[in-house]
Design brief:
The protein is α+β, with helices and mostly antiparallel strands and about 675 residues long. It is built from 17 helices and 18 strands.
Length: about 675
């Protein structure tokens, strides 16, 4: 029975219910038939049948209850117990609690199979939980190890960051010390140190001969600087001991803050490692905390960097002084110097070179104490012998030293230069080449003047002397009639006067240039002198017509030497006549300008080439062309005119067009305009 009850529980329960139901139906039908057959029976018989029917129903009910009690109830109770047990264990399993995996439910039963499946699942979950617990424990161990390594890495990272910041600070200070600005201004250095050390203020005190020569402050007033120099015992102690020191002091009375506070100070000596001398002190101060040992060590390291920078600055100042001294020495030399550095491929020149070659541009920031960079291509443009000088220069650039002098001229003969080259040797090694440009313009001019003088004297003296000699010889050897004798004497007289004038011109130029020429100045009207000279030279020429352009309603008063004015006007009119060989008009005009009188003499003759204009007033200079070469003269007339005008505070100028004529303009101070202006 038990076996039957435990197997196929669903079908068994249904069979019991169906049996009880069938039994109830059969008994109900039998009771109905039994009652239906009681027709015609007595009341007692009917009551007896009813009573029997009641017992029959009672028996059916009893049987149904017994089935429920002994068959259905155990089945349902066992099923409920198993399901309850599964429910409890599933809840414990869901809560992660341990359960017993042993059971006595046969597997043939559906509930048993369900229980077996549940326990199999539980065993799998338990196995997985065990594995997960093991892995979790392993992961926890690994996590602990990772946390430990993470802590170590964080500590290492913190150290790395600290070292990185330290290196950044050190690099920033090194960059500041290495910058070009630190050679001239140490304010950036002390500013950087104050910021890196997180101090409120500080100063760099430069020391020379154990005395504070200068102070480079940061956030310090003039009063604080003076107090530091004269009253700081900490600074004096460091200067004596040459060892780093720090201290703190209490400030009781401060008008700005109003309450007492502490200042923490540190002074670090900066020593020249080569001489073991104190060259500076670094002073730093702050309010919040004292200087730590690590910070002091770092500051001591900074002091070594500052010492190197100060030595660099001292070396730079010494080199700069020597460079300026050398440049000043070379610039003071009259000869132009060109220095070619072969290793650096640079070309430098002194001030005299730039004075000669005006095409070389001097930058505004350069001063006279430096050597200036030169562009040789610009120089070549001014040299008259361009190709020859370029070849000479290329030879020097190749490292060869040409022998002898190279002569050249600049700006169409305005300057005459002699160039020679010398090699610069240092430690038995060629470092460069110096080209020296000697300005021989004055010597060349003297040589030219000597040649002109010899040529002029030989020509101008030989002609009158030949005439005098020839006519005197005729008069001595021949008997001449009185008329011819008189004519010969007149010729001798004229040639003697020509010689006298020539000698006078020489003497006048010499006296004027030496400043020994005296002038007897007086106030007179220049019109009379102009008219007198015009009449004189008009008589001497028949080909020319001298015209006056003068407003005689005005006075042309000058304060001048009358004889010098005659000589000035005479020379200019004589030149106008000589250099108009075909004749023509010569216009002489006088006009008033503000406080000046302009004397203008215009001719319409040969004209003057533009190349001759700069040399026109030089001694013995004569225009060299085919037309003017036939015209005589000493070349002293215009030079004398220039000296006369200069002695009278005037100015002489010339304008000319070749083949069309020339005009000379003389400006002299006007006495009449000055008097009118004073009135």
């Amino acid at each position: 029975m038990k076996q039957w009850m435990t197997e196929k529980l669903g079908r068994q329960l249904m069979a019991v219910f169906y049996s009880v139901f069938a039994w109830s139906v059969l008994t109900s039908v039998a009771s109905y038939l039994y009652i239906d057959n009681s027709a015609g029976q007595t009341k007692e018989q009917v009551l007896a049948q009813l009573q029997q029917t009641q017992w029959f129903w009672f028996l059916n009910l009893l049987i149904f209850l017994l089935c429920l009690l002994f068959i259905v109830r155990p089945l349902i109770g066992r099923l409920t117990m198993q399901l309850h047990e599964l429910n409890i264990k599933s809840q414990r399993l869901a809560e992660g609690k341990s359960i017993s995996l042993e059971h006595d439910i046969p597997v043939e039963n559906e509930v048993g199979r369900l229980t077996a499946s549940f326990y199999q699942m539980a065993r799998s979950i338990s196995s997985q939980h065990t594995e997960l617990s093991r892995k979790n424990q392993l992961m926890e161990q690994n996590q602990d190890a990772l946390k430990s390594k993470q802590t170590e890495l964080e500590q290492a990272l913190e150290v790395t960051r600290s070292n990185e910041l330290h290196l950044q600070d050190r690099n920033e200070l090194i960059e500041t010390l290495a910058s070009k600005e630190s050679l001239f201004d140490y304010s950036s250095v002390i500013s950087t140190i104050v910021r890196l050390t997180k101090t409120e203020f500080g100063a760099l005190l430069l020391i020379k001969n154990n005395e504070i020569s200068s102070v480079v402050p940061k956030e310090m007033t003039a009063e604080q600087q003076e107090s530091l120099k004269t009253e700081s015992l900490l600074l004096k102690r460091v200067m004596i001991s040459k060892e780093m020191a720090n201290s703190s002091k209490k400030v009781a009375n401060d008008e700005l803050i109003g309450f007492p506070y502490y200042i923490y100070e540190a002074v670090i000596p900066i020593i020249d490692p080569a001489k073991e001398e104190l060259i500076a002190c670094l002073y730093l101060a702050r309010f919040d905390q004292a200087f730590k040992e690590k910070e002091l060590i770092e500051l001591e390291s900074f002091s070594k960097q500052i010492a190197i920078s100060l030595m660099r600055m001292s070396l730079y100042e010494q080199m700069e002084y020597e460079r300026k001294e050398t440049a000043q020495l070379l610039n003071s030399v009259r000869e132009a110097i060109l220095y070619i550095k072969h290793d650096e491929k640079t070309i430098l020149g002194n001030q005299a070179l730039f004075d000669i070659f005006e095409s070389l541009q001097i930058e505004e920031e350069n001063d006279s104490m430096t050597f200036l960079e030169v562009r040789p291509e610009t120089m070549f443009e001014q040299v008259d012998q361009k190709e020859a000088f370029e070849a000479y220069f290329e030879e020097v650039l190749s490292g060869k030293i040409p022998e002898g002098m190279f002569s050249l001229s600049i700006d169409q003969g305005q300057y005459f230069i002699q160039v020679y080259a010398e090699e610069i040797m240092l430690s038995q090694e060629a470092k460069g080449t110096i080209l020296v440009f000697r300005d021989v313009t004055a010597e060349t001019e003297v040589d030219r003047m000597k040649s002109e003088l010899v040529s002029t004297v030989s020509h101008e003296l030989r002609t009158p002397l030949s005439s005098i000699y020839g006519f005197t010889e005729l008069m001595l050897k021949r008997k001449l009639d009185p008329e011819r004798n008189k004519r010969y004497l007149q010729t001798i007289h004229d040639e003697s006067k020509r010689l006298t004038d020539l000698v006078s011109d020489f003497l006048n130029v010499q006296r004027m240039e030496s400043g020994k020429q005296s002038y007897d100045k007086e106030v007179f009207d220049l019109v009379d002198t102009v008219k007198e000279q015009t009449r004189f030279y008009q008589v001497a020429t028949e080909q020319h017509r001298l015209q006056l352009d003068i407003d005689e309603s005005h006075e042309f008063l000058v304060n001048a030497d009358k004889n010098s004015m005659k000589q000035l006007i005479g020379n200019l009119v004589s030149n106008a006549i000589k250099y108009s060989p075909d004749g023509g008009d010569v216009v002489i005009s006088l006009t008033h300008h503000h406080n000046q009188i302009e004397l203008s003499i215009r001719d319409f003759g040969l004209g003057i080439p533009s190349s001759a204009m700069p040399h026109l007033f030089s001694k013995f200079y004569r225009v060299d062309n085919s037309d003017s070469r036939k015209i005589g003269g000493t070349g002293l007339g215009l030079s004398i005119c220039k000296e006369i005008v200069r002695a009278h505070d005037g100015n002489i100028d010339v304008e000319s067009i070749l083949g069309e004529g020339t005009v000379f303009k003389v400006l002299l101070p006007s006495v009449s305009d000055t008097l009118i202006e004073m009135d």
